[in-house]
Amino acid sequence: MEALNNLDAHWVWLAIGLILASAEMALPGLFLIWLAGAALITGIAAWLLPIGLPVQIVLFAVLAIVAVFTGRTYLRANPVAEADPKMNRRGARLTGETAVVTQAIVGGSGRIHHGDSEWIARGPDTAPGTRVRIVGSDGAVLLVEPLGSGETDGA
Questions:
Q1: pTM
Q2: Which of 77, 97, 108, 137 has the lowest CB atom count within 10 Å?
C-alpha cells in the first residue's frame, strides 16, 4: 500500500489514458478514445500544476463530458464513410460481370458459372453455353439477362 502512496498521481492518469486508448483500439466504438484524451490531459495537468486529487477527479469528469459531447457532435456532422458498401455482399459485387449458363435457365431458374464458382441464377429462358450479364442479386441467387447481339463481355 505504501508503494501506491509514493506513486505520483499524474502517472496514474497517464496510465489510465493509455489503457483506455488501447481498449479503444481493441474494441473500436469511438467512445473510449474521448475518455482516454480526458485522462491524458488530466495527467498532464497534474504533472504541471500543483492540484490535489479531488480537483484532478473534477477536472477529469468535466473534460470527459466535454470530450464525449464534442466528439459526438463532430461525428454526427462528419459521419465515417463505409469503406466498401458492397463488402460481404458477393452477389452485389458481381453486378455487371458476365457468366456462362451451365444448366439451362428454364422457367426462370438455372445455374451459371462465374470465376471459380457456380451460382443459382434467375432470368429469361436461356440455353447452356450462352453468355449472360449479371444484373443483380437476390440473396445468393444471381439475376441475369442474355448479352445483347452487339455486346461483348470484355474478356
A1: 0.50
A2: 77
